[in-house]
Design a protein that fits this description.
single chain; 416 residues; alpha+beta; Translation, Eukaryotic Peptide Chain Release Factor Subunit 1, Chain A; Nucleotidyltransferase, domain 5; 60s Ribosomal Protein L30, Chain: A; 3 domains; four-stranded antiparallel β-sheet; 13 helices; binds zinc ion
């Protein structure tokens, strides 16, 4: 996949969203006064402004003077921000958060955040006013990495579609002309059985054709295919090699489902939860396997902030591995003799004093950055891929606890 020059990578953008969401989740309002608006890409900005204006006038009915003022201030701030947009929101839509949040001691502070182009398209307009910001729809998008093909079938009906993250999309359906088991009078039993088998075979071919049309063009992005239906239909379908051979290899499992209409797709995803969780971790697991192999027997592993950073700067890192639960800042210090040193600190901690380890002089703070941003920026300049690693499996958790949440797989050995 080619990235646009200068544009941050998709992973980096997801991380930026993640950080903003974590901040927003910490905020509360003393009343129902925190406004969240999800705007799909096909919604005219002028319609949204009209909606906000309407809410503003309705807010005059709010009894508590403080809440009323806060809600109206939030809505005004949102209107001000929407003026920067043309007719329609940017690609995938827009999410706006605004409200007076508690800062302790009965004080409040006005916060307004506008998130452009979330990782997935916003499906419907949503206006939400509560004592918390509404972040769940965005969080779901961020947690969603998988693309799975879905097939449900019995001998009468079939549906194929997608599972994109947590969203199920029914795309195509077919119904068969397979006759029931009861033959009509006058038909020979043998002939009836043959016609019936032919009809079943034709139907399986038709279903496979639908699946091929949909999934084959996407086979390189596909994380797997799930097949559902009653027995023995789904088994016959899979064992009969009806699917394109490249798709056959992608089948993660077959599951008993009782419906084969669109609701069957949902039932299939429900049944496959464990398999899906396992598949979501597959890439992370293979990254960590490779890392431990290099660590124990090879020389293409690096870990910890400073060694990994040095390798990144040299351009020797093939893949940067970052624990998705790493939340650290990096402080860069410079001493009077020009020595530059860095220290990692918790994101909520004050910036500590620092004594230069080379000359013993007191060093001054040069800058303080988010550690992941800091590393990913170097990675992007050097053509290094960044992979975020979940802590939901043992080796993933070890990356965070034993290796400081930062590691790298090297292109060549550097001895750093
Ligand atoms: Zn120094």
């Amino acid at each position: 996949m080619s990235e646009q020059e200068g544009a941050p990578s998709e992973d980096r953008r997801k991380y930026e969203f993640q950080k903003v969401i974590e901040d927003l989740k910490d905020y509360t309002g003393s009343g129902t006064q925190l406004v969240t608006i999800y705007i799909p890409p096909d919604k005219q900005i002028s319609d949204v402004v009209a909606h906000v204006t309407q809410e503003h006038s309705e807010a005059s009915n709010i009894k508590s003077k403080q809440t009323r003022t806060n809600v109206q201030d939030a809505l005004k701030s949102i209107k001000d921000r929407l003026r920067y947009y043309d007719t329609f929101p940017p690609e995938n839509g827009l999410v706006v958060f605004s409200g007076a949040v508690d800062t302790g001691g009965g004080r409040t502070e006005m916060v307004t955040e506008v998130l452009e182009s979330p990782p997935q398209e916003i499906q419907s307009f949503r206006y939400h006013c509560d004592d918390e910001f509404l972040t769940e729809p965005l969080e779901e998008m961020l947690g969603d990495k998988g693309l799975y093909g879905l097939i449900v079938l019995d001998r009468r009906e079939a549906n194929v579609g997608w599972l994109k993250g947590k969203r199920i999309e029914a795309v195509k359906s077919a119904s068969s002309l397979v006759p029931g088991k009861q033959r009509k009078g006058g038909q020979s039993a043998q002939r009836f059985a043959r016609l019936r088998l032919e009809a079943i075979d034709n139907f399986y071919q038709e279903v496979a054709g639908m699946a091929d049309d949909l999934f084959v063009p996407k086979r390189h992005e596909l994380d797997g295919i799930l097949v559902g239906g009653p027995s023995p239909t789904k088994d016959e379908f899979l064992d009969g090699d009806y699917l394109h051979h490249e798709l056959q290899d992608h089948v993660l499992g077959k599951f008993d489902v009782s419906y084969t209409d669109e609701s069957g797709l949902k039932e299939l995803v429900d049944r496959a939860q464990d398999t899906l969780a396992e598949a979501d971790l597959m890439d992370d697991k293979s990254d960590m396997e490779e890392f431990f192999q290099e660590l124990n027997g090879g020389d293409l592993a690096t870990y910890g902030f400073e060694p990994t950073r040095k390798n990144l700067v040299m351009g020797s890192v093939e893949t940067l591995l970052i624990s998705e639960d790493l939340r650290k800042d990096v402080v860069t210090y410079e001493c009077p003799n020009g020595h530059e040193e860095r220290e990692l600190v918790s994101q909520r901690a004050d910036t500590p004093e620092h004594t230069c380890s080379e000359c013993g002089e007191d060093a001054e703070v040069d800058e303080r950055d988010d550690a992941i941003d800091h590393l990913m920026e170097i990675a992007e300049q050097r053509g290094t891929d960044t992979h975020f690693i979940s802590t939901d499996f043992e080796k993933g958790e070890q990356l965070l606890t034993a290796f400081g949440g930062i590691a790298g797989l090297l292109r060549y050995s550097t001895g750093v």
